[in-house]
């Protein structure tokens, strides 16, 4: 299949083209962060968007801890890889965790059909479902942050067990990934890295 590199915004309505530009085309993952704070009101708006996105059975297993103060962010420092230490200057750091007993909320979240019995005695199924859909919600968090004018930088270079011990000692929640939120400190330091051509990543049957 030849890669055509179709112009994404070609012949799209202006509002959709602007959204595509903000969410994908112009958005970059900062390597250097400004210390400009993220208002708490913005974090509330952020969650109000994220919570509306789809998950399996509307289970919404992700849980978010937003670290906004220097003291809160310093609690995270011992768990970070060396390369991620500097990202603590971002206005906020989101710990995206997942609730291993998310199914306890399903009678409320899925009133038309309560699937919670299938998870009660199947902890491995509950864990997989929570992790997969919590990861999905982390993606929604990044897109919602960009829509609200924030930069977002996901991080996987950290000791998840150390984060859990510091923030989720009761064991119900487990850390999935971290996301720096805020504003880049200046323009990108290098061009956007290549992406796979459609011919290497897509099959249409």
Automatic annotation (TrEMBL):
<dbReference type="InterPro" id="IPR050461">
    <property type="entry name" value="Nitroreductase_HadB/RutE"/>
</dbReference>
<dbReference type="InterPro" id="IPR029479">
    <property type="entry name" value="Nitroreductase"/>
</dbReference>
<keyword id="KW-0560">Oxidoreductase</keyword>
<dbReference type="Pfam" id="PF00881">
    <property type="entry name" value="Nitroreductase"/>
</dbReference>
<protein>
    <submittedName>
        <fullName>Malonic semialdehyde reductase</fullName>
        <ecNumber>1.1.1.298</ecNumber>
    </submittedName>
</protein>
<dbReference type="GO" id="GO:0035527">
    <property type="term" value="F:3-hydroxypropionate dehydrogenase (NADP+) activity"/>
</dbReference>
<dbReference type="InterPro" id="IPR000415">
    <property type="entry name" value="Nitroreductase-like"/>
</dbReference>
<feature type="domain" description="Nitroreductase">
    <location>
        <begin position="28"/>
        <end position="183"/>
    </location>
</feature>
């Amino acid at each position: 299949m030849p890669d055509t590199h179709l112009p994404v915004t070609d012949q799209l309505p202006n509002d959709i083209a602007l959204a595509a530009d903000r969410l994908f085309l112009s958005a970059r993952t900062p390597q250097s962060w400004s210390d400009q704070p993220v208002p708490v009101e913005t974090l509330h708006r952020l969650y109000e968007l994220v919570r509306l996105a789809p998950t399996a059975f509307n289970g919404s297993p992700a849980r978010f801890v937003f670290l906004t103060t220097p003291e809160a962010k310093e609690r995270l420092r011992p768990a970070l890889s060396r390369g991620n230490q500097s990202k603590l200057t971002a206005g906020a750091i989101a710990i995206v965790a997942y609730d291993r007993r998310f199914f306890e909320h399903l009678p409320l979240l899925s009133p038309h059909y309560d699937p919670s019995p299938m998870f009660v005695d199947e902890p491995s199924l509950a864990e997989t479902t929570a992790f997969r859909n919590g990861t999905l919600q982390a993606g929604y968090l990044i897109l919602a942050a960009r829509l609200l004018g924030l930069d977002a930088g996901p991080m996987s270079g950290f000791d998840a067990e150390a984060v859990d011990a510091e923030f989720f000692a009761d064991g119900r929640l487990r850390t999935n990934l971290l996301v720096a939120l805020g504003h880049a400190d200046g323009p990108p330091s290098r061009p956007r890295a290549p992406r796979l051509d459609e011919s290497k990543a897509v099959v249409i049957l």
